[in-house]
Structures are given as C-alpha cells and as structure tokens.
Amino acid sequence: AKRNLEAFIYTLGYAEDDEGKDGLEHFTTHDDSLEFLSGIGFKVPVQERAVCKNIQEAIDFCLKWEEKRDAYEYEIDGMVVKVNSRELQERAGYTSHHPRWAIAFKFKAKQATTKLENVEYQVGKIGSITPVAKVAPVPLAGVTISSISLHNADFIEEKDLHFNDTVLIERAGDVIPYIVKALPELRDGSEDKIKFPEFCPVNDTDTPVKLVRTEGEAAWRCPNCVCGSQDLQRIIFHVSKPAMNIDGMGKSIVERFFELGWISDMADVYNLDYEKIGQLEGFGQKSADNLEEAIGKAKQSPIYRVLHSLAIHHLGKKVSKLLAQEIDHVLDLCNWTEEDFTHIKDVGPKVAQNVMEFFAIERNVEMLKRMESFGVNLKQTEDDKPVEVSDDAPLAGKTILFTGKLHRMSRKEAQMKAEAAGARNISAVSSKLSILVVGEKAGSKLKKAQALGTVQVLTEDEFLELFD
Hints:
The chain has five domains: 84 residues, Dna Ligase, domain 1 (2-Layer Sandwich); 83 residues, CATH 2.40.50.140; 71 residues, 5' to 3' exonuclease, C-terminal subdomain (DNA polymerase, domain 1), CATH 1.10.150; 71 residues, DNA polymerase, domain 1 (Orthogonal Bundle); 67 residues, BRCT domain (Rossmann fold, 3-Layer(aba) Sandwich). A five-stranded antiparallel beta sheet has the order 5-4-3-7-8. Strands 11-10-12-13 form a four-stranded parallel beta sheet, with helices on both faces. By secondary structure, it is of the alpha/beta class. α9 crosses α10. A hairpin with a 3-residue loop joins β7 and β8. The model has no long low-confidence stretch (mean pLDDT 91). The chain has 16 helices and 13 strands. The two termini are 53 Å apart.
C-alpha cells in the first residue's frame, strides 16, 4: 500500500470450502476460478483474457494484443495460452519449474538503432573475456540502453561490427539487449573494425598475458589465475545463492570490501572485522551482526557447496555433489588421478582435468587451508553422503505422491523418507504414479487416482507401516 502498487491475480492455486474440503473442486475451468476471484474483490485480467474455441482463435487473440501493446498502460512482452479445463490441467501436470498446461506467446521484440561507440572487456570467474559494447543511450521498451554484451570474438566477427557503426538493437524477450546487426549501408568511412585483443585487456600484472581458447569453446580466456579481476569475480560467485549462499553479501558489498582491501580471496570472507564493518557508511552494527550470522551459517555448509563455490571450470552443483559423496575431506582431491574422477558416472575427463589443475596450484590449497582455519567446514557432512538404497528397499523403483494434510510428519519429511526407501517423488497423478499417500482433506488427486485404477492409495499410517 505504501508503494501504491496494484496486483492482478492470474490463477487460483489453493482453496478450502466451508466444510474444509478442496475448494478447487467447485471450479471445472480456469476461467470459472478467475470469475470467482473477481466476484470477491480481487483484480483479475478482464479485457486481456478470452476463452478461445481453438488454437487459431488463441493465436489471433494474441496477435491482436501485439498490435495494441504500445497503447496499453503496462509494459507487456507477450500473452500466456492456458488449457481452460482443470481436469486436463491435472492430467498434463508440471515439470520441475512450470505447468505443462500453459505456454508463453512472446511478442516480437521492439527494435531501435544507435551508434556503437566503444567496447569494454570484462573478465569472468574462470578468466573468460566478455566484450561489452558501449552504445549511444537509446530508449527501448521502457528502459534506456547504453551497454550490450557482445558475448565473444566469434559474435563480433559474424556481425562484422565496427567502431562507430550504426547498429540495429532489440531486447531479446523484451529483457536482454541484443545487437541484431550492423547497418553497413549507413557507414561513412569513419568506422574501424573491432579487433579482439590478443592479450588480456584487464591484466593487472607487469607481464602481458596471452589469451587462450580451448578447442570447441567460444570464449577466449586469460590463463593467469593470479589476477585481481578474476579473484573478485570468483569471490562474487563464492558468496552467491547457488554457491555458499551468504545472505546480505551481494555483488556491491563484495566489490566494496575488495576495494577497501578487506578481502582478496575467498578465505578472507570468513575472517572479516565486523566492528569495522559496523562503522562503515551505510552499514551500522545491526547489519554487521546479521552478516556475521550469515557467514557463520555458511561455514557449516556441506562440502558439495564448498566445491561448487570454488568456481572451477565445468564443475557444477550436480558433479560437486557426486564428488562430495566420494571424499572425507575437500583436500583429499589433491591426490586424485583422472581415473579416480572418471570412474564416477557423469564425471568426464574435462571436469577431472580442471579439478586436478585447481588442486595442483599451491595458492588454491593454501586458501582452502586458511578457510578451514577460519572455521569453514571441509569435511563430509550427512548432507553430502549418498542415500543408500538397496534393491529390497520397501519402495525401490516406485513413484510416489503425497496429497492432503499429514499429521505425523511434514510433507518434506515424508518425501525424504520415501526417497530414502528408494522411491521417486513426482508432482502429479498420472499413469506413471505408483503410490498416492492421502492425508486429511485429500481432494481431486485422490479421485483421479481412483479413476485410473492403477495407483496404490495409502493413508499416512499405512505408508509408515511399510517401514515397520
């Protein structure tokens, strides 16, 4: 209310009726549920919504809105086409990140022309060099564009980009600025071809460092791991949510501490002076205390997070988990051979080579030892250990779904128990479902499972009896 925002509701995810039962069962269509929400005072799409009889009607409706998008009071980049029948929605189900019964119809991106004035080069956490075009500021789709990524040397070559070119730009998906093409017909002779540098353009040592490119990869990289620019990017990744997940230590905070000389590598993050931080402009002691608490929590992370946070090329979270299952201590990897890595399913020679190179550098090993001396856990935790599932586990090879309110455990605890017994949790009732565990006020999922006739339906107590 203080920010004077408006909310438009686009779906009804959960409802209970007066008897405490699943309220969604009262609606046979998505449109019905929106009408209900409108009737009790919520703002829902009205003119922006239509029930279409077939695909062509849906496409025509979307195209009509694309024509009048500029006159609309809000910035929009497309429409969403949904299955109206709730029964069909249930049958379609969900992936891990989106419903299968809805799809985006994206409008064509808006375009503009501007001048390519300069190119700056940025270095990433693994030394990748990314060229960034600096263009004359131009308004486009509600924002002013002045910087556009050129991705890599091949992109510059393919687009035949020159300094002082007039370029056609758009926001891909109405979000990310993108150079569509140069307009060579507008060149006047003042343009110079952009040449990708041969040596690292952000090198902060006295000796020039020649860039390298691995066969099959697009990026040129600076091989100098003793580089302040790379160190900064590695620290930014190290504290980020996918890695050590240190709340309150975002990119700008890391950059500030780095400039002040308080941190120069990942280990320094765990040896900060919180009294000094509390005196820093824009902080205060409360913020410093919160940061200390967040860093203290991160120190106890499972080692798969530590491995992932080291920013080793090709070492993602999935493979980090696989490695963490095989070691007692992070520094055990110092003694691993390529064969030790590649005997693990889904771990290939590229990952093996990159991890071995990282642990062969004394600077990296010393950093990890310092991290441990500052209290960071480098030993395998329970969260790192593989879930042992025997062939005779009670739910081996089964798929399972929980619905309704459970009383003897939380939904998450039940799912973890099922996984430990060999089952795989899925999100919707379908022919692929083996077991449905029903709690209190089980709704449409139970009816659908009963209609299929192939799903074993268990109460919470019956589910727990499987483990007796």
